[in-house]
Specification:
The N and C termini lie far apart (48 Å). This protein has one domain: Rossmann fold. Helix 2 links the parallel strand 2 and strand 3. 43% of the residues are buried. Helices cover 34% and strands 11% of the residues. Helix 1 crosses helix 6 and helix 6 packs across helix 7. A 5-stranded parallel beta sheet has the order 3-2-1-4-5, sandwiched between helices. By secondary structure, the chain is of the alpha/beta class.
Length: 235
């Protein structure tokens, strides 16, 4: 009996790797979708390839779009990546690493591929607890996109085949995400969460993504297996 297909958005970071492992645990034939969108942290693409191989995913597509044409973000334009934000201030505002419309764009591509595959499920590793305050990581956005998807596809209009956008990490802390991933066999040493890594793929240890990731590993009393640019970054 064939497994149901699902599209998983795989960035190469800790959250998306955990989400892919969760989709596998639920019995899906996982088709991973990664974007080369002009991000300054393009080494995350290599991490995505490594994660897909480690999890033995069914198919992995790397799609190229270039959001540098719009800019407007520290990830796609010549804007400094915020560093050393106090932990209690992270998530209190929308930082410059927010990429306008990114999750709406990514989910739209995932929706198109899911319809072609005959899949009714998309998995996205957004988180609205230990996160930087991005508006497109909130439950309200996911619910609105799912409602739109039912109106935008032939599968939804003619076949009554509703799409489900799964966000299994949305209400979890980074500690809980790491614990789930470890239980599912995710190798976090292969993942890259940093917004401003070195060209060799070593994380900066100072951007908000690194700060939240390191906090999660500290809380479980485990050293982050990812590579960092400085010893202090892992402290």
């Amino acid at each position: 009996m064939s497994r149901p297909k699902a599209v998983v958005l795989l960035s190469g970071g800790m959250d998306s790797a955990t989400t892919a492992a969760i989709a596998l645990r639920h019995g899906f034939d996982v088709h991973a979708l990664t974007f080369r969108y002009g991000q300054r942290h393009h080494v995350e693409l290599e991490a995505a390839l490594h994660v897909a191989a480690q999890l033995s995913l069914g198919r992995h597509v790397v799609l190229e779009i270039d959001l540098r044409a719009f800019g407007g973000s520290a990830l796609t334009a010549d804007i400094p990546v915020p560093k050393d934000t106090p932990i209690d201030e992270i998530g209190q505002r929308i930082p410059d690493t927010y990429v306008p419309g990114r999750n709406a764009i990514f989910l739209s591509f995932a929706l198109g591929w899911a319809e072609v595959l005959g899949a009714s499920d998309i998995f996205l590793g957004v988180n609205a607890l230990d996160y930087s305050g991005y508006p497109d990581c909130r439950p309200e956005f996911i619910q609105a996109f799912q409602a739109m998807a039912d109106l935008a596809t032939r599968a939804g209009v003619e076949q009554g085949r509703r799409l489900t956008v799964h966000t299994p990490l949305i209400a979890l802390s980074k500690r809980e995400i790491i614990e789930q991933g470890l239980a599912l066999g995710v190798d976090y040493g292969l993942t890259l969460t940093c917004y401003d890594p070195s060209t060799e793929g070593a994380a900066c240890g100072r951007c908000e993504a690194c700060i939240l990731r390191l906090k999660g590993f500290r809380e479980i009393g485990m050293e982050d297996p990812a590579r960092y640019q400085t010893v202090e970054g892992k402290a």
